[in-house]
TrEMBL record:
This is SMI1/KNR4 family protein.
Length: 200
């Protein structure tokens, strides 16, 4: 059962993005497409993320020079399976990169093994248990989970994790609305996903 508040937030996010005029949209994902994607990749979209994609799929535009992602909007309908898998794996792979090369270790994992391979194996085992993060745009993510909504959008670059929006609707405003002005002191998102919130 999808929540009314999740539907409202997702529709509001799509409306915010459409108002910017930055992107065109394809027809939104159908129930059959959601089922196929969720079965194929082993997660369920949060209610607001699902509604956002049901309203319309943003179409990628050619990248500007120096842009990190050539296709920042995940192409759920017709995208390359390997590319989507890489985007889904990005948060976990980024943490593993920092474990391997930057001496990162999460205190909740216990003592770090002295052997680098053992440390990576231990980290990988623990990361298999953390909440799945689903790409919204480039390296901006929402937690997976049917029946959930209103999570802050996280920008995830290895273990550098920051909030980019109070929720999906606010994120569209923060990321794409050039007229948004400065964020005031009351803007204080609280990440909700276990493990990931500890990296903020």
């Amino acid at each position: 059962m999808i929540s009314n508040e999740g539907v409202r937030l997702g529709a509001e996010a799509a409306h915010h993005l459409a108002q910017t005029g930055l992107y065109e949209f394809e027809t939104g994902l159908t129930e059959a497409e959601f089922r196929r994607i969720e079965r194929e990749y082993g997660f369920e979209f949060a209610d607001d993320h699902r509604e956002f994609l049901a309203v319309g799929l943003p179409i990628n535009v050619p990248p500007e020079d120096g842009q990190t992602w050539s296709r920042p909007w995940p192409e759920w309908r017709s995208g390359d399976l390997d590319s989507l898998r890489r985007q889904l794996d990005w948060p976990v792979e980024g943490v593993l990169l920092d474990v391997e090369h930057n001496a990162f270790w999460y205190e909740g994992w216990g003592e770090r093994p002295a052997d680098g391979t053992a440390a990576l194996d231990t980290a990988r085992r623990h990361l298999a248990e953390v909440p799945v993060m689903v790409p919204v745009y480039a390296h901006r993510y929402l937690p997976a989970g049917r029946g959930s909504f209103g999570h802050p959008v996280l920008s995830m670059w290895q273990t550098d994790v920051i909030c980019y929006g109070l929720d999906l609707a606010d994120y569209m405003h923060q990321e794409f609305d050039e007229a948004r002005g400065e964020v005031d002191d009351s803007w204080n998102p609280r990440a909700t996903s276990r493990f990931w919130r500890d990296l903020l």
